[in-house]
Design brief:
Elements lengths: L2 E8 L4 H12 L4 E7 L4 E6 L6 H10 L3 E4 L8 H27 L10 H16 L3 H12 L5 H21 L5 H4 L8 H25 L1 H7 L5 E6 L2 E6 L8 E4 L8 E6 L2 E4 L1 H4 L5 E3 L4 E2 L4 E2 L4 E7 L5 H14 L4 H30 L1 H14 L3 H20 L2 E3 L2 H9 L2 E4 L6 E12 H5 L4 H19 L5 H12 L7 E7 L3 E6 L2 E6 L1 H6 L5 H12 L3 E7 L2 E12 L1 H12 L3 E5 L4 H11 L3 E3 L4 H13 L4 E5 L5 H6 L2 E5 L4 H6 L2 E3 L7 H34 L3 H4 L5 H20 L10
Parallel strand pairs: 15-22, 15-24, 22-23, 24-25, 25-26
Antiparallel strand pairs: 1-3, 1-4, 2-3, 5-6, 5-7, 7-13, 8-11, 8-13, 9-10, 9-12, 14-26, 16-21, 17-18, 18-19, 19-20, 20-21
Length: 748
């Protein structure tokens, strides 16, 4: 049986580290796969066998030279700790390293620096930096060496260590160098050794600060959950921890308080601010029967609601969990970078030693400087951060915009789709029938004044709702809902008789009321001819005509239909502007599906299909070379969602649909779908930019550091500038990824 574990990993600094940890975990017997994220510092491990102990995974990571512990909800690390530690280390290095840098770069401005005392002073200060804050690089490099591997720490340790060792020898025993025989003191590189450590630590501090910002979306969602709730007991109420609430409990929330769990209002009328969860800028009116979401704020009067989902299963909790899972994952495009990084560091070390050997022949006085510069400028931090940083920002931003993307792979797949298959009921439509038109018999025969017609329709609706108020039939719910929307309180009906599939009849306040199909009323001797033409028109539009008779006379015609969501037409047009082929796939009747598709501007329609046929249609589209997204909300859509390149669930849909989907739209049907596609495309552009600049930086930087331009320009890149450039390259990748935080769709 399969299982999975999440680990918190410490000590990683580049893509090579990621690859080593993944390899160590994958080599544990019983492990199916392992994925490590450099940004979140986490590993997700899938097991073939539940008997594999987490301890074995931790030991494997430890043996690879890194720290690990099992991730638990109770022991989540403080996201600020890494930033504080990195900041302290960078500050200490800067306090001692900057003076050395000033002295080293000022050349003859400080004559005392060239004296024996000045050199010894520089040695002491450089030693504090290199073996103080910089000691972590030597420790990590030693662990890597024991495992016959190399990573960023190897490069930093070799570069700073070589510069320090050469300079220390030149200070303590200058007679060992050729320069000394000619009366010239050998050059020292204390400022380079210190600057390398300082700039790398500064880069890590900036990266840590940036990573903090990557968790803002999840943090803000977690903060929505209140700690306490007022549980109603009889006539009183008790303040209890939110964790103790159970489904069915009654909870009272006062004005200004956050709602503690997802639920249904049973008492009260108020306005609730759901902006952080749904994006709705205006407070939403809530009455008995309305749903409320955990984390939303009661802005009006007191409300009492019944818990339908406890805190850990609430909408806010599910969103936070989905974003956290997504930020742990990687896009397929990251695998290429990881493979390259696995060979990159050994190759760089080899290039550095070749550079050293060549320059020992050309000009021994600068050979060590070239060696150090190559090692430092090649640090692959930017390469390791290129993909996970962008994925983390994009999934966090998506959650804020109502789009839950379950990881890097769905993000990349979504960016490449060219065909979107849309379910109709509950996806493009509201998912439940409503009364869309009411036509009275009198107005059809002789047009009535508007007010008179409205009053007549209201009177008929009141009688019809009286018959239907105790029924659970969808059409009955539509009629009762129309009455409630108009503030009508229906009276009680007597002697109700239901003819399944045809209609219902009964006595309302002494009047005989009959509601149903044309054939059923015709069988009772009621002439519907006056509204027959209107009924045919409604049927052609995909609506269901329902006739109402009072005291044996035709009174009105109601049109009942599953109405198209207001946002659907805008979303469909936006998808088409993005160059996507939009297709409706529905189990509904051809006539109804065609009517909805025409209204939305969808040309291709496949109607009357069963759930398994939807999955077959998805397969046919993919077999034709299309990259397909399937969008649905119900259990019947789950097979198609799973069969598509990417499944997209409407958040109001079933748990089965959401489980089968790679992306969930949490707001207003498919309104967020064009935004999701645009965000995915923007994310992939950002990742490609990151990878391009990370590779380009090394392709250009390494030859320059090695001295390739010296023959033409006489220019050599100092180790100090190389370390600064290396740090800035990593920071630039993170900052470029953080631009996605400003994504709002459209022309981003």
């Amino acid at each position: 049986m399969s299982s999975e574990h999440d680990l918190e990993i410490s000590g990683m600094s580049c893509a090579s580290c990621v690859r080593r940890v993944e390899t160590a975990l994958a080599n544990v017997a019983g492990v199916s796969s392992a994925s490590v994220n450099l940004v979140t510092k986490e590993a997700h491990v899938e097991l073939r066998d539940r008997r594999v102990e987490p301890r074995a995974l931790v030991e494997a990571v430890t043996k690879a030279g890194y720290g690990a512990r099992v991730k638990t909800n109770e022991r989540a690390p403080d996201p600020h700790d890494e930033t504080r530690r990195a900041g302290r280390a960078a500050l200490i290095a800067a306090v001692f390293g900057v003076p050395l840098l000033v002295v080293g770069m000022a050349h003859d401005a400080f004559p005392w620096a060239s004296t024996a005392a000045g050199r010894w002073a520089q040695l002491v200060v450089a030693t504090v930096v290199v073996f103080g804050p910089g000691a972590r690089f030597f420790v990590a490099a030693g662990k890597a060496l024991r495992h016959r591997a190399a990573d960023m720490s190897t490069l930093v340790a070799l570069g700073s260590g070589a510069a320090w060792a050469y300079s220390a020898a030149a200070t303590a025993a200058p007679q060992l160098f050729d320069h000394f025989e000619h009366g010239v003191m050998p050059h020292v590189y204390f400022e380079a050794a210190a600057a390398i450590v300082t700039f790398v630590l500064l880069g890590r501090y900036l990266e840590a600060r940036s990573r903090e910002r990557l968790t803002q979306a999840v943090g803000s969602l977690a903060a929505l959950q209140p700690k306490q709730a007022r549980r109603v007991r009889g006539e009183g109420e008790d303040e209890v921890p939110v964790e103790t609430l159970a489904v069915g409990d009654l909870v009272r929330v006062r004005p200004g308080e956050r709602i503690a769990a997802d639920g249904e209002v049973v008492e009260g009328r108020s306005e609730v601010d759901e902006a952080l969860l749904t994006g709705e800028s205006m407070p939403v009116s809530k009455i008995a029967g309305s749903s409320v979401l955990a984390g939303s704020i009661n802005r009006g009067a007191p409300l009492t609601f019944r818990v339908v989902r406890v805190a850990r299963d609430s909408t806010a909790a599910r969103i936070a969990a989905a974003v956290a899972d997504a930020q742990r994952s990687r896009a397929p495009i990251a695998r290429f970078a990881d493979v390259v990084a696995g060979y990159f560091v050994p190759a760089v070390v080899g290039i550095a030693f070749v550079t050293l050997a060549v320059w020992l022949v050309i000009d021994p006085s600068v050979a060590l400087e070239r060696f150090v510069a190559v090692l430092i400028i090649a640090c692959p931090c930017a390469l390791g951060l290129a993909t996970p940083a962008a994925v983390a920002v994009a999934t966090g931003r998506g959650a804020e915009l109502g789009v839950l993307i379950k990881g890097g792979e769905p993000l990349e797949t979504l960016s490449r789709i060219d065909t979107v298959l849309l379910d109709k009921t509950g996806t493009l439509t509201a998912g439940h029938p409503e009364v869309t038109e009411m036509i009275t018999a009198a107005s059809a025969a002789t047009p009535e004044p508007r007010v008179a017609a409205a009053n007549a329709a209201t009177s008929v609706l009141r009688l019809a709702a009286a018959l239907e108020q105790d029924s659970e039939h969808p059409i009955a719910r539509a009629v009762v809902g129309a009455a409630k929307a108009r503030g009508i309180t229906p009276p009680r009906a007597r002697d109700i008789a239901v003819e399944h599939g045809s209609g219902v009849a009964g006595d309302v306040e002494g009047r005989a009321v009959r509601l149903g199909s044309a054939s059923w009323l015709g069988a009772a001797g009621i002439d519907i001819g006056g509204l027959a033409a209107q009924a045919d028109r409604l049927a052609a539009e995909g609506k269901t005509p329902i006739f109402v008779a009072v005291d044996g006379e035709l009174a009105a015609l109601f049109a009942v239909a599953d109405t198209v969501r207001a946002s659907s037409k805008t979303a469909v047009h936006a998808l088409q502007r993005l160059g996507l082929d939009v297709v409706m796939v529905s189990g509904d009747r051809e006539l109804v599906a065609r009517a909805v598709a025409t209204d939305l501007g969808i040309a291709r329609v496949v109607a009357g299909v069963r759930p398994e046929e939807k999955a077959r249609i998805v397969g046919d589209e993919r077999g034709g070379g299309k990259r397909v997204a399937m969008v649905g909300d119900g259990i019947n859509d789950a097979p198609a969602l799973a069969a598509a390149d990417i499944g997209i669930a409407v958040g109001s849909g079933t748990d089965v649909a959401n489980a089968a989907a790679d992306v969930t739209l949490t707001r207003d049907g498919i309104a967020g779908l064009p935004l999701a596609v645009a965000l995915a495309r923007a994310s992939m552009r950002t990742i490609r930019q990151n990878l391009f600049w990370a590779f380009a930086y090394n392709v250009v930087g390494i030859p320059i550091a090695a001295g390739a331009l010296y023959g033409w320009t006489g220019w050599l890149l100092s180790p100090v500038l190389a370390s600064a450039a290396m740090s800035l390259s990593s920071v630039s990748v993170v900052l470029n990824s953080l631009r996605l935080r400003r994504f709002r769709g459209g022309a981003w």
